[in-house]
Specification:
The structure is a single chain. By secondary structure, this protein is of the alpha+beta class. The chain has one domain (3-93). It is 26% helix and 13% strand. It has helices at 11-17, 23-27, 82-93, and strands spanning 32-34, 40-41, 49-50, 60-61, 71-73.
Length: 94
């Protein structure tokens, strides 16, 4: 089964939507995680952003370790744990 077969309100799909256009959430977070490399960082460690034509608060973070746009912050309401990041990696990257 593909992650795309899951309902739109499934945690893995909701979390994926939280991984872009989220600079405001990232900057308001205590813990941020990358679901590609599974690194966990403080928001101050994130320095590279894409979608820079968007308003500041809607830019997308790039992971400080791997450079992929797969970051989620805990201000999104999601718990950033190694287990959660692994589940996201499996769902979205195989």
């Amino acid at each position: 089964m593909s992650v795309f077969d899951l309902p739109e309100d499934h945690l893995l799909r909701v979390a994926h939507r939280k991984s872009s256009n989220h600079r405001g959430e990232i900057e308001g977070s205590h813990r941020c995680g990358c679901f590609y490399c599974k690194g966990i960082f403080g928001p101050n460690q994130i320095v590279d952003w894409i979608d820079t034509s968007n308003p500041h608060s809607q830019q997308t973070a790039l992971c400080p370790a791997c450079g992929i746009d797969s970051m989620i912050g805990d201000a999104s309401g999601l718990q950033i744990t190694e287990e959660f990041l692994e589940e996201m990696r499996t769902a979205w990257f195989g």
